[in-house]
Amino acid sequence: MSVVLEPGKAGKLTGTTPWFTGDVAAERVPEKYRLDRAFVPKARYLDPEFLQLELDKLFTRTWLMACRLEELAGVGSYVEYEIGAHSILIVRESKDSVQAYFNACRHRGTRLAKDRGRVGSIICPFHGWRWNLDGSIRLVLDREEFVPRSDDDLGLVKVRTETWAGFVFINMDPNAVPLLEYLDPIPRIFEPFHYENMRIRWQKGIILPCNWKTALDGFLEAYHVAGTHPQLFRLDKSNDNLLSMKELENRVWSPTTTYERHAHYSSLGQKKSETTEDNATKDPLKRTTEGQIDPREAFALSVQYIFDDMGGLENERSWRAAEQLKTTDLPEGMTPGDLFMQLYQDLVISEGYAWQDISPQQWSEAGTAWNVFPNTILLPNQGSSFMYRARPNGSDPDSCLFEIFALDQVAIADYDKKHQHTPQIFEDYHDAALGQVFNQDMANAKEVTVGMHSPSFDGHRLSEAQEMTIYNHHRVADRFIWADRDA
Ligand code: FES
Ligand SMILES: [Fe+2]
């Protein structure tokens, strides 16, 4: 049920039809916004009018990842989530429940709470009306002076709130499909990664000078890796000179797979081995190296670089397992990757962490990075994950808030421990200490935007193999924006 485009050949959307099968008839979409085969017109990124359509019809009708449950640790904890003109308050209503409300006083509209914090009841800062955590009205000062109104009329207006794997999603559309149905097939495929046992280790938000989709697009494909992150193909990570033609032969091939709403890419190894069985599935045990040094060391360095430079997706336990790998004898018939996983497993179990059993088939299905439609990306890994989220910044289509979350599994004994982290926001990515890889990605955001504004440029020409994640986003967005139907 999930794959609508050429089932069985997902990710290879070839042929002249059916680009719009099950979606929106092309005629319904104004020409300047109309998708064509693997072509996305630039007006969908640059026009203020299109941003307004997204704010009115897309973000108001889709499930949006608003926060993690660990951010609402105690009863009365709240997080404010802003999107377009909407401010939404997500509140820990009781030990077992969270509920989101439109963050506007029923008296004269005042925003009730900002950022994050913890309260006993929700109190308007203007005239002091009060609400219980379940949104029911608790106090109207001098209520007898008002026209009699029902408690219902004075209660906070609820926003649909559902959770999955420690993520709290909200949806402003009362008629939306349930969250788990909307997320399909993500909950099934992500099950072995046990996100419910992860917590946010750090969260950095960056104001980027690009459209919110441009920020995400840069993480929805790995086709750019050879061009943008050349050091990843070298043992010497300080060498970020352009890859030579010879080095380019070792580039990684990362085909995309599209589903009814969501999409992912999988980095599968070298493209030149595309037809070999070796390349049939994503294999986390394979990493690109030059093959000139001890393969154990090469493997270990690539794990350690991800943690040292990016600060996530790996963790300090996998870093130490990699360190052990460098000097552990490689048993006959074992790859460095196999040995690494064994060392990593022994280490985490001995330190009180759960080990996730993830079969090769589950790794393969999970791929590398997922677009959780519309504005979140998840990269699953053993014990750690990155999550990215982007939102428009005001009414400027060329500005967004892009956030990076590093999630790590916590020790079994800490599952119920109160969690704390302080989100940071930076106006300039240079101040965010993001490391070499993210800085390279961040630099692209502005360059893409400047180039897209050139009158000579009309739209994205996407790879049908490696960039259909991007196309898929637009295809699905059309259903919300033009079809007025529940997607
Ligand atoms: S505006 Fe909130 S109590 Fe008056
Ligand atoms: Fe990148």
UniProtKB/TrEMBL annotation:
Membrane-spanning parts: none
PROSITE patterns: RIESKE, RING_HYDROXYL_ALPHA
GO MF entry, a single one: 2 iron, 2 sulfur cluster binding
Record keywords, A-Z: 2Fe-2S, Dioxygenase, Iron, Iron-sulfur, Metal-binding, NAD, Oxidoreductase
Xref: SUPFAM superfamilies: Bet v1-like, ISP domain
Required cofactor names: Fe cation
EC number assigned by the record: 1.14.12.19
Ranges for domain Rieske: 63-170
UniProt keyword annotation of Nucleus present: no
Disordered as annotated region, ranges: 265-293
Key word Nucleotide-binding present: no
EC main group: oxidoreductase
Stated name of the protein: 3-phenylpropionate/cinnamic acid dioxygenase subunit alpha
Record organism: Nocardia macrotermitis
Phylogenetic lineage: Bacteria, Bacillati, Actinomycetota, Actinomycetes, Mycobacteriales
Gene that encodes the chain: hcaE_3
